[in-house]
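Hi P.,

Sorry for the delay on this. The queue was packed all week, but I finally got your sequence through. Input first:
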Amino acid sequence: MNVVVLIKQVLDRSCPPRSFRVNRELKAPDIPRAPRVLSIFDGNALEVALKLKEAKGTGVKVIALSLGVKTAEEVLRKALAVTRMRRCS
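Then the structure:
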């Protein structure tokens, strides 16, 4: 069984409001230096997928997917690290 978890990169909630700006032309956030993190909801989904994998045993594969810019790779690496940490403990 394959369990697919969709991962989204979002702005870090600890980011100060003064670093947040909106590009009026694009009507989109303009945050070149703001840190981005794994969405808390997606982190929860990843946790549930890993628990399902542990409960079912072999034959379950957890796949994390993200659609976005190159910086989304960092969030996927964190998801991979979580899955590896769970495997080791």
